[in-house]
Amino acid sequence: SIKITDALSRLSTQGDYSVKKEIFVALRQAWQIIPTLDLFATGENKLVDRFMAIGEEEEGADWLNAFSRPWNEEIFQIHPPIPKIGKALID
Prior knowledge:
The chain has helices at residues 2-14, 21-31, 85-90; strands at 37-41, 51-53, 76-78. By secondary structure, it is of the alpha/beta class.
């Protein structure tokens, strides 16, 4: 419907949404893993102490632009903004 399309288009540009903390904790416990880095996060929505910013300057980020460094040395939590999902899956 038009309402759903409109809502999704606004959501994709905001970029300030995240996985609920309760769900993150439950999954972490169920999978018995402890992520070391939160990709595509902000200081306000990070779920792990260390985080990589989406791209803009972000105080407290380990580095900016989650695509600028390899992720293979980390156990990461990833929840990219909707427009970046495809690139995140390929990288």
